[in-house]
Amino acid sequence: xxxxxxxxxxxxxxxxxxxxxxxxxxxxxxxxxxxxxxxxxxxxxxxxxxxxxxxxxxxxxxxxxxxxxxxxxxxxxxxxxxxxxxxxxxxxxxxxxxxxxxxxxxxxxxxxxxxxxxxxxxxxxxxxxxxxxxxxxxxxxxxxxxxxxxxxxxxxxxxxxxxxxxxxxxxxxxxxxxxxxxxxxxxxxxxxxxxxxxxxxxxxxxxxxxxxxxxxxxxxxxxxxxxxxxxxxxxxxxxxxxxxxxxxxxxxxxxxxxxxxxxxxxxxxxxxxxxxxxxxxxxxxxxxxxxxxxxxxxxxxxxxxxxxxxxxxxxxxxxxxxxxxxxxxxxxxxxxxxxxxxxxxxxxxxxxxxxxxxxxx
Length: 361
Ligand SMILES: Cc1cc2nc3c(=O)[nH]c(=O)nc-3n(C[C@H](O)[C@H](O)[C@H](O)COP(=O)(O)OP(=O)(O)OC[C@H]3O[C@@H](n4cnc5c(N)ncnc54)[C@H](O)[C@@H]3O)c2cc1C
Known about the structure:
single chain; 30% helix
């Protein structure tokens, strides 16, 4: 096989977007996925294109997420053109029902130029009539908060990446890194070594193994998130809702996704009845009439957990040619376009879109 300029390990949203970005700049790129592309955390995610309670996060998260949020509609449109698959980017807006968040939220919104309003009861129940009237009389309204359908986004990304010439190798786990004289030369796989000038680790919750192996300790840990899906009706609920760290995301086809748990249980992706019950109760509290709809599905994914949601994006401190794009925790879908672009800037030696220092190893 011809030696690619760059080999990307991991076929989640971060690996796919990074591979696509590098290929678009003319590099030859091979993406290596241990199973099937787009089936792990990225697939399991809710597709909310904003951090939850964005004012609670450090500036490094705001900078990346704002960069991406402002461009997501365009990215989704391009992917649809390139792949023929609609990732269903939608400006559904988000209602945040936690009263005590009012002051910090409005302050943050004013500081960052983010559209946000404080709604009184009439306004709240007019725009979302099924919200629990007994419990919630006010809400923060973020009209520019958007959502996307992750499984569709991943299929679109995969088709687009292949069409523009990214070589995708599935069922090919990267077993270890290969280096010579302080420089990366490729990776080891069960079918033999793959050579490359540059290697990007984008293996999500599984990234730590490679970094430990390269003598760098990074605190990326799996954090399980479970979701249940209600079989609702189209147009019945239209806004995303959030209360006490739980949320509802209504899809255009009537499905309503309720998430999510945050569980430190290692690499265990099983779903539990207890989580389904917790999610059902939190959903019912926000929207009591949800009771009439059955739960159609439940699933879990392993987030690449990291302190403060700040991912690692940049070059390895000692191994030349090794790069990392991992640890996006709860914001990987929204951050992906910015994260991929920032890493491509660093690999290509371009002026980076944002200051890369907060994400450096
Ligand atoms: C329930 C849930 C809800 C979420 N909701 C949101 C949300 O609304 N908005 C948001 O922005 N984020 C959300 N997230 C977080 C988001 O999903 C993650 O931050 C993001 O998907 C991480 O992407 P990734 O590509 O790094 O990881 P992954 O999608 O997990 O991809 C990593 C890939 O690497 C592969 N891999 C692992 N080891 C190897 C190896 N040795 N060799 C080759 N390949 C390997 C895996 O098979 C996998 O395909 C949510 C996550 C969960 C679980």
